[in-house]
Each structure stands twice: as structure tokens, then as C-alpha cells.
Amino acid sequence: MKRIKILLAKTSLDGHDRGIKVLSLAFRDAGFEVIYLGKMLKPEEVVQAAIDEDVDVISLSFLSGEHIEHTRKVARLIKKKIQKDVLFLVGGVIPPQDIKKLKKMGVHEVFPAGSLIEDIIKFIRENVKG
Amino acid sequence: MKEIKHGYFSKIEDERTWSGYPVKIFYTEEDLKTKDKSLPGEFPYTRGIYRDMYRGRLWTMRAVCGFGTPKETNERFRFLFKEGETGLDVIFDIPTMTGIDADHPDVRDEVGVQGTSLCSLPDMEEMMDGIPLDKVSSSLVITSYASPVILAFYIALAQKMGIDIKNLRGTIQNDPLHHRFCGYPEEFTPTELCLKTATDIIEFCTKNMPLFYPQNINAYDLRENGLNAAQEIAFSFGMAMAYIDACLKRGLKIDEFGPRIAFYCSAHIDIFEEVAKFRAMRRMWAKLMKEKYGAKDERTLKFKFGVHTAGCSLVPQEPLNNIIRVAYEALAAVLGGVQSLHCCAYDEPLALPTEESARIALRTQQILAYETGVGRCADPLGGSYYVEYLTDKLEEEANKILEEIMRQGGMVNAIKSGWVQKEIDNFAYQYQREVMERKRLIVGMNIFRSEAQGKPIPVHRISKKKRMEQIRKIKNLRKTRSKRDVLDALSALKSAAKDEKNLIPYIVDCAKVYCTMGEIMGVIREAYGMRYDPLGKLQSPLK
Description:
The complex is a heterodimer.
Chain A: E1 5-9, H1 18-29, E2 33-36, H2 43-53, E3 57-62, H3 67-81, E4 87-92, H4 99-105, E5 109-112, H5 117-127
Parallel strand pairs in A: 1-2, 1-3, 3-4, 4-5
Helix pairs in contact in A: 2-3
Chain B: H1 53-56, E1 60-62, H2 70-82, E2 88-91, H3 94-97, H4 121-127, E3 137-141, H5 147-160, E4 169-172, H6 191-208, E5 212-213, E6 215-218, H7 219-226, H8 229-249, H9 254-257, E7 261-267, H10 271-292, H11 298-301, E8 304-309, H12 321-335, E9 340-342, H13 355-372, H14 385-407, H15 411-416, H16 419-436, H17 464-480, H18 483-498, H19 504-512, H20 517-527
Parallel strand pairs in B: 1-9, 2-3, 3-4, 4-5, 6-7, 7-8, 8-9
Helix pairs in contact in B: 2-4, 5-19, 7-8, 7-16, 8-10, 8-14, 10-12, 10-14, 12-13, 18-19, 18-20
């Protein structure tokens, strides 16, 4: 079976990156191929990197209340530019009330702070197609 | 029932402190290495920096506050003061922290979402409306990069109100190395420039604002990024030493600025270890100031600190449980002799605090102060074999790390080489692995996790409409102020920056004629050979 390839990134100016870095390491140890693109990125840069690297999963992290606007921008670009089925995940400080809204934009699952990493890994294994 | 695993026979399985040090079943006098018989208020101040501690004056009760517009933040301040808060604590949004104005086209989505937006003197006026600056103590939680401008707005406002700035009390974070661990890239917050302006602030305040703490060394954010208690001590002391060296190099004497150095620490969930940490920090600081720097003034020798309860210890599952976590952490801070305390609100893993959750956080400390009686007696855990042992242990472990930092040529080098970041990342990942492996237990999260989470609690929503008002307001300011005055003040600032002068008086002049945060920092950046706009979109007004 092909190794699952994951892109992790932070858009926006927010610098809280403990969670996303820890996740990158946990994904690596779970056997995924991991690209942590960094922070302070533009939505366009994230989606372009996803295309160039032909990833299976795009995972964004937000901790400063900017998740709605930024997710909307990335979701639009994914729909417009990416042909294959990518799994789109969002995590961080996300109020439960917003999960439905994010899913409506095209996010497949939301993992708020306090999620168990094994649940995230399991979700990825079960939902990456191909 | 498979739910009942050990039931009646459940026991403590983790035999280490939160930081990972083994703990015996009990301790006796024989476990104590240091024969420290000092009393509260006596060198090396292990038992507290004052003889009478909270009978002399209670700790300052602050609630970190800041969201949306300066006006909304002002309303929350008034609410908190009405409920009994005794000091202000304001936090700014990320554009402000990064020295970027709210009307910059690339930051619209981030204005006011993580703190208050504050771009100009009129914003400071709105935020502090009705608050007598000479009667409150304000803690300004701001990056070192934007600190000179926020301080200048504060000074300009005081002068406009006719208040002598020598009577201003408070703290500005102004911690330049902090940027390197807490998410701000070098290109946005250059270390060399920040070290220079940080020293400007210390020098200016030492001479003009004797009651103000011009620097607050942020051990808290380091710990939140992933460190244990001994690392929190060592890394923050390493940073403090770098700043002290810079001030001495500028010709200041240790006892001139030493009395106004303060720390901002975390209080995590392991109560006894945290109390021991604060005790160890006091003892180590007093010795460091005396032995390494030759300080004589006892105010220099006294380690002064504020506490922020550990945000990273809170979880979104069953959020009301966080009230209990925060209460234990606040207890540790008070048992540890804290000077100023902020309690996290229980809903912080979900959003910024609501009015209700902010009030509960304040009540948590009021109950500690007025009902429990824990502040009645100074250093109530002094003489506990366990706590005294842990105090020695943390001092010993922190000293080992400090020696390693010194071996690497000090904190600036240890950061540049990437060693510090590696230590942080390693601990953060190790912690998370232990959570995954159930070696660390968090109730409701990885033990006793309840599938039915109930209805979500109402969270604080930042009004988009008001955020947009803030953007319009600054656009409007640009049109109505005197263009001539702005350009003159910015030109004077730029020349002063090129001549390596202390920039604070020039920035205050800029503030008074309504130059904005982005313009002031932009012009300084230019003088240092960087591009005016860190995001590369705006042109300098001086060209």
C-alpha cells in the first residue's frame, strides 16, 4: 500500500505552533509521509504546495479565532484547483458550534484541541481514498 | 461491567512529578540538602520577598483582557473593575503584536480576534477611557517588537491627561528573545533591533518612570510551548541575563535597573512542584544578582513575579472542569508567594472568555484571598520536607541547564544554534506521547472520557461589524491628522534610529501627532535596512 502523504500548515499571522508540530511528529511516527510547510502562509501557497507534492491530506491548525475566514479561503481553492480527492482536516481552538459550518465549507473532519492523536490517525487511515 | 477496571483498588501509578522527577513515598529531614534557614523577607528570599507578605498587601488581581476594538476592551475593563479586579492586564491582537496596522490589506481577518487592535493614540484613549492612569497598575502584554510604540501611546496619553509619568505603575512585557520561541519569525521581529529597543525602554523608564517595570520576562510562554518546571526557570533566567548584560554594556548600573526586573511565570497543575519552583526561583535569583552581578540593593535581589495559570493544562472536554484546574493552579501561585495573578477562564480552550467566564476566573482568586485563608501566613509550606526537597531539586536541575546555556555562550547563542527550540519541541512531543500512552492522565480527556459531551457552552463571538469599524477608524485618522506633522515626526525618528539614539522620546513625539503603529515601526525598520512593511505591500510615507 502506498504511504499516505500529509501536508500540515498554518495560514494567518498566528504563531501558536506547538500543536501542529507535535502532530507532524506523531504522524511521522505513525508511518505517514509528512510535510510541515510552516506558518504565516497564504492560502494560495498551501494549496499550491498540496498540488506540487500530490498530497492525500491537507491539515490546517488555528488557535486564534481566525478559523472561519481562513478555512473558507483554503476550501475554495481546494475545490477550484485540486482534481483528486484530498482529505481536508482542521484542528485547534475551535468552538463546537463552528464544526458544522466548517464541514459545510468542505472540511471532512474537525479535531479541536483535546482530541486524541490516535483518533486522528485512525480517521486518516480510514478515509484516505486510493 | 467492563467500565470498572480497578474500582476500589485504584491507586496512584505515576511516581514522578509533572516535570518527571521521581518522588519517594515520604520525605524526612535527611532528604534536605540545603540548610536554608532564612525567614520570609530575608536573603535569599526563598520564603517570600516580604516579611508580612499578603498581610501587607494582597497580590494584584488581574484578568488578561483584550478583544475586538479598544472600545469593547474598555467596556470589559470597566466590568472587571466593578467586579473587584485590582490591576489591568491588556493583550493585543496579532497584527498589533507584529507592528502592523488594522487597515493593512493582508490582516483584515485577524483584527481584534486574539486581542484588542491598537494602532494609534486615539485607540489608547478609547481603551483607557475613564480609567485614572495614576491610580491603576497596567500590565501591557505586548511583543518586544511593538513594546516601544505601545509604551509611547501610554506615555502620550498620560501626558495628555496631565499625569506626571513618574507616577505611572505597571509592566510592559518587552521581552525580545521571547519572539524566537513564540511564533514570530525573525524577519517580522528582528532580534538585534528588539534587543536595542528593549534596552531603550529599560533606560528610559529607569530615568523617567521609576515605578514602572520596563520588562517582564516571559517564562510563561516558554513553558506553554513545552517545557518542564526546571527548564522554565533556566531558560527565563538565561534570557534575563542576556538583557542585564545589554543594560550593563550601555553603562547602566545593576542596582539602577535591577529592582524593576520582573518575571511572568506559569503555574501548572502539580501544586507542590510549582510552589517549589517559585521558591527555587527566588533563591536562585537572589544568589545570581548578588554573586554574579554584585547587586547590593535588596530590591534587586528580590525575585518578583506574576503568574498566568497554565492555559495548556485546560481541555475543551467538559469545560467546567477547567474551573477546578485553574483553582488548583492559582492556589499553587499563592502558596508560592506570587505578586500578581491572572486566572485563565474555563472556556479558553474554545474561544476568548465571555463576561461570565472572566468573572468566574476573577472569583477564583477572590475566594482564595478572602475565604480560604491561605494568604494569612507567609510561605505556609516552608518546612515541609517534601516541598523543601523539591525546592532543592528544582534549583539543582535548573542550575544544570543554566550551566549548559552558559557553556554555549549564553542564551542568544543557544537560541541561534537551534538548541533551545529543539529542547522545547522534544519536551512538547514527549509530553504528548505520554498523554497518548496514558502515562499522563487528564480527566475527561484520556481517562474518564465521556462520549456524550452535552450541549456546547455559549462562547464569546468577536463582532465582525465592530472589527470593520476599527479598520474604518484608522483609515479616517489618516485623512484627518496633519500630514506635515506626521512626516516631520517620522523623519526625526528615522534619523534618531540611524544615529543609534534612545528612540522612546522620538516615538512619543510621533504618537502625539497621531502616527500609527505600522508607520512608526516601519520607519525604524527602514533605518535598520529592512523593508518598511514586513508583509511587503505598503510603501513608506517618507519616500
